[in-house]
Specification:
- The chain is α+β, with helices and mostly antiparallel strands.
- The chain has one helix and four strands.
- The chain has a domain at 22-58.
- The protein has one helix at residues 28-39, and strands at 9-11, 14-16, 48-51, 54-57.
- The chain has a two-stranded antiparallel ribbon with strand order 1-2.
- The radius of gyration is 16 Å and the shape is elongated.
């Protein structure tokens, strides 16, 4: 994605870039919840509920 270049950090082993959501990001949980809601929009309330990393199927 277009944001990967903004996640660069340098270590003694070289320059690295992050391809996943980092823990500690100020909006990480809200971003993750929005993504889960987007992915499962048509199923939420029908047979599925999502809360952060918990998916309940009933």
């Amino acid at each position: 994605p277009e944001h990967v270049g903004r996640t660069l950090f340098t270590t003694p082993d070289g320059t690295m870039e992050s391809l996943v959501l980092q823990q500690g990001d100020c909006n990480g949980p809200a971003t993750y919840q929005s993504l889960m809601n987007f992915i499962f929009t048509s199923h939420i309330g029908v047979f599925l509920e999502v809360y952060l990393d918990d998916i309940i199927i009933y």
